[in-house]
Design goal:
Pfam families: I-set (PF07679)
Oligomer: single chain
Structural class: mainly beta
Number of strands: 15
CATH class of the largest domain: Mainly Beta
Protein name: Ig-like domain-containing protein
Domain Ig-like: 65-151
InterPro entries: Ig-like_dom, Ig-like_dom_sf, Ig-like_fold, Ig_I-set, Ig_sub2
Keywords: Immunoglobulin domain
Shape: elongated
Number of domains: 2
Helix content: under 10%
Strand content: over 45%
Radius of gyration: 24 Å
CATH superfamily of the largest domain: Immunoglobulins
Distance between the termini: 68 Å
Strand order of the largest sheet: 8-15-14-10-11
Amino acid sequence: MSIADGKTRYVSTFRIQLSSSQSKGANGQVSQPAHIPTITTAVRKPGETSNAVSSKHSHTSDLYPPLFTEPLEDCIVDEGNDIALKGTITGNQPISVSWLHNGEPVLFGKSSLVGGVVTLIVRECLPEDAGAYTCVAENTAGKTSSSAAVCER
């Protein structure tokens, strides 16, 4: 903020570098970037010219939103067989996982998240178990989802 000629002026500059590049580690899995972009805010103090600006650097902590590195896959099952949906998620823990079937919360089956692998098992499926399944993964940094179609023969 600066005061010149009786007028208050606010100056704020944000520099954000976004990168979609992902690197693969030795085990072949996609790893999170080593550095989160820095957001820089410049504030002009009273009496300073535009060349004399103090900077405050605010570094985002190493908090990564969930990301499906292996999404759910469509499948076809026979009536009476089990449905097994599986995906792989990266991101900071704790990650909460919920499942939707045709847009409604899943109230059946067994869901788990172990070592970044999320699964939903529906035992002895019935015709009404066919449809669109969505896994929603969320932590304090963000939210993502992956969907698959389950067809019954």
